[in-house]
Amino acid sequence: MSGFLEELLGEKLVTGGGEEVDVHSLGARGISLLGLYFGCSLSAPCAQLSASLAAFYGRLRGDAAAGPGPGAGAAAEPEPRRRLEIVFVSSDQDQRQWQDFVRDMPWLALPYKEKHRKLKLWNKYRISNIPSLIFLDATTGKVVCRNGLLVIRDDPEGLEFPWGPKPFREVIVGPLLRNNGQSLDSSSLEGSHMGVYFSAHWCPPCRSLTRVLVESYRKIKEAGQKFEIIFVSADRSEESFKQYFSEMPWLAVPYSDEARRSRLNRLYGIQGIPTLIVLDPQGEVITRQGRVEVLNDEDCREFPWHPKPVLELSDSNAVQLNEGPCLVLFVDSEDDGESEAAKQLIQPIAEKIIAKYKAKEEEAPLLFFVAGEDDMTDSLRDYTNLPEAAPLLTILDMSARAKYVMDVEEITPAIVEAFVNDFLAEKLKPEPI
User: Residue 63: what pLDDT?
Assistant: First the structure.
């Protein structure tokens, strides 16, 4: 256990009072679940979370000072739930503000100076919003729950500890609605590909995607494919839900079933909307990027949208550049075959990296793109201050505001593989974006 934890967190953590704690001691204490709390002292929502999380943390660890939770009577037996530790991973840029923020935290924190390690954790777990709280199995490192904020809300006493993921078929059990009021049992989904659609009427990008998705749904059904979408509403009232759902030809979890909606959000670690998760008939995830796929493939020719190792950069998928480090090979698209040849060149390396991390049940540490010549690519070059050369091999890390550039006359598979391996081994020197 301590080997994984030290690789993830380094050798030392600190308490709110500034005392150092050896990471290997967490293993000796029998910690079974590790929470990573991503936040910042300047964020009001982070301050609010810290207060509720402190009470939650105390209850689960059997701290009498934390008191019973909402609606609780006598304190529950704490022993089975003592094996939780939380580590604060900050994005603060000012050490004094960081110190003031962590001073009252009853859990541990990555030292302020560990900026590089903090950034690696933000990228590794694709953190896009704060506050974020994820739970990991402290022995294997596998992600147990991607949306710990909902755990605190839904299970304040920790009765469902350690909150491991349940199969979709178990979480979705119950009635589903059509907008004409008809109710169907979730067993009607058997044998179908499914899209789990997290959306809300108050969200303009959601309404835009819904209009496109209605057409995609119709085309897929008309092609004879077994496909169903389940709308999981984030609307703020049942009236808004009904108004929005009236535009949708698919199914929905009843708005009144808040527990099931919350469990689905927890299952997929939803951090923002709109999000479309596409599942195979067994309920396994095909892609979390259903939104991008629908916008890129309006004729639905590539349904059910199995992920491609290498993507052609476009307006609709450029948002993925913000999810973590991305290898981008810029080419001269005036040559008709150049983009396809570039994809074929990168693909074996991308497939190898993806397979390696999939075997460990981890997200690949890089996304892979080929970029031609268009206004969006020009804007990307301008923003990252890249030369106009083509071909140009780069790795862009937007969250770290860093770039790695290899400007050579000929790019070969060996050059790409060496570039990727050196990046993953942290042998490359970043340039600022």
Answer: 61
Looking at residue 212, its amino acid is V
Give the tens place of pLDDT for each residue, 2-41: 588 999 999 999 999 999 999 988 877 888 999 999 999 9
For residues 372 and 395, what is the distance between their CA atoms, to the nearest angstrom? 16
Contact between 409 and 381 under an 8 Å Cβ cutoff? The reply is no
Task: Report the alpha-carbon distance of residue 296 to residue 363 in Å, rounded.
Answer: 22
Q: How far apart are CA 312 and CA 374, in angstroms?
A: 12
Closest CA to 169 of 184, 151, 195, 189: 189
The tokens describing 143, both together, are 């992600």
Q: Cβ–Cβ contacts within 10 Å for residue 418, how many?
A: 14
| Cα gap 185→173, rounded to integer Å | 8
For residue 239, give every residue at least 6 positions away whose Cβ sits within 8 Å of its Cβ, in sequence order, or none. none
- Return the structure tokens found at 310: 């290498």
Helix or strand or coil: residue 318?
A: helix
* Upstream peptide bond of 167 is cis (omega within 30 degrees of 0): no
DSSP sequence for 374-387: SHHHHHHHHHHT--
Q: From CA 348, how far away is CA 414, in angstroms rounded? A: 11
The single residue listed with the structure tokens 């195979």 is: 280
Q: How far apart are CA 348 and CA 227, in angstroms?
A: 31
Residue type, position 199, single letter: S
Mapped onto helix, strand or coil, the DSSP state of residue 285 is strand
Q: Name the residue with tokens 């294997």.
A: 140
- Flag residues of the chain having pLDDT under 70: 1-2, 63-82, 334-336
* CB-CB neighbours of 8 under 10 Å: 18
Q: Which residues contact 211 (CB under 8 A, 6 or more apart)?
A: none
Residue 294 CB burial class (10 angstroms; 0-12, 13-18, ≥19): buried
In 3D, which of 123, 151, 146 has the Cα closest to residue 135?
Answer: 146
Tokens (6 digits) for 394 = 């780069």
Helices (H) and strands (E) in the chain, counts: 14, 20
